[in-house]
Amino acid sequence: MVTMSCANCSDPLEISYHQETLNKSKIPMPFKSNDSTVSIGEGRTPIVSLSTIGKYLGRNHVFGTLEYLNPTGSFKDRGTAVMLNVAAEFGTREIVEDSSGNAGASVAAYASKHSMKAHIFVPDSAPAAKLQQIIAYGAEVHPIGGHRQNTTTAAIKFCKDQNIVYTSHNLSPYFLEGTKTYAYEIVARNKQIPDHIVFPVGNGSLLIGAWIGFSELAKFGSLKKIPKLHCVQPQAVMPIVAKYRGETWDPGDAKHTIAGGISVTHPPRYKRILDIINESNGTAVAVNDPNILEWRTKLAHLEGIYAEPTSAAAFAGLEQLVHTETIKENETVLIPITGFGLKDAAL
Question: Which domain does 123 fall in, by range?
């Protein structure tokens, strides 16, 4: 099993590059060569105007990134593509991942592309559509009962017992190198960088990746400002929001939420997420399930977008940020719509 945490502080690792590498590369990547990398067409997702929702909220510049148009239906493909390309360079032939659904499907798909055997540990409560997708790619599914953390514990034990590489999207620094492409694409395709980006956050890989990407671009000198990055979590599972507010929150306080993709009680990079929120002058807010369901319906009725509840949570958070004037009338806001509604269609 590969170590993915610091020996001194136990925090998950991140990749860093020499300044000369940053100066020479369009998007610095941890590959030996870009010539042998494998892709299924991830990234380059459309950015669309959400003008009807903007009018509803009294805001003139609301946009969405259609991340659900990635190959397996979620933003996770950005991170998985890089993570498994690195694993392939090291000759890895068998891997283990634990996931509530989207990351598991993504890892299963890219593993099949690399001819790797994938073991995907999932909560036994994961949506049937996501489980069917994982199985369709040929992965071996290991359903685990109880709390979401039990799935991670079981996956780690299996890796140790079987001496198999743990390609955890939650811990792998290479996964973040894939999600940082989100920031690079925003800068490359927009004359005006958004003032705010509102993320649904569980483990926070898209928010952290975006910060890494924006920070690298700032080092290039090609970016003068970094957007304010905001975190949205369900009230049922809100460890980051509680820390941000200075409140006490215990994993034992977690309840069921329809936003299963961000139902994470032990985010391993929570300190990093809090630092990013503060450094970017962002905020962290919690939303309840009725609001999430309401916004899932609004997205479909007002904009023709069928998103999974996790994605709709970001819009419930956006509404809060508008009401508190955190996002002002003429400021530009971008929301990544992270997963497709058909992947969580049981509601």
Answer: 76-173
Asked whether the beta carbons of 93 and 164 are under 8 A apart, the reply is no
Q: Would you say residue 232 lies in a domain?
A: yes
Q: What is the CATH number of the domain that holds 101?
A: 3.40.50.1100
The string of pLDDT tens digits covering residues 57-85 is 999 999 999 999 999 999 999 999 999 99
Q: 80, 102 in Cβ contact below 8 A?
A: no
113 and 151 together in one domain: yes
Q: Are 293 and 155 in contact (CB under 8 A)?
A: no
Q: Per the structure, how many domains does the chain have?
A: 2
At 1 the pLDDT is 44
Q: Sort 66 into a burial class: Cβ within 10 Å, 0-12 / 13-18 / 19+.
A: middle
Residue with tokens 């003429």: 330
Both structure tokens of 277: 């929120």
Q: Are residues 278 and 221 part of one domain?
A: yes
**What's the mean pLDDT in 115-123?**
96
Decide if 29 is inside a domain: no
Angle ∠(126,283,322) on CA atoms, nearest 5:
95
Name the amino acid, one letter, at 78: R
312 and 250 in a single domain? The answer is yes
Residue 221 vs residue 189, higher pLDDT: 189
As a whole number of Å, the CA-based R_g of the chain is 19
Residue-averaged pLDDT of the chain: 93
Structure tokens at 71: 């190959």
Q: pLDDT tens, 154-173?
A: 999 999 999 999 999 999 99
Locate 176 and state its tokens: 């973040």
- Listed in sequence order, the residues at least 6 apart from 191 whose beta carbon sits closer than 8 Å to its beta carbon are none
Q: Do 88 and 114 touch, CB atoms closer than 8 A?
A: yes
Q: Kindly state whether residues 332 and 192 are assigned to the same domain.
A: yes
Is the pLDDT assigned to residue 235 strictly greater than 90? yes
Residue position matching structure tokens 């003068």: 224
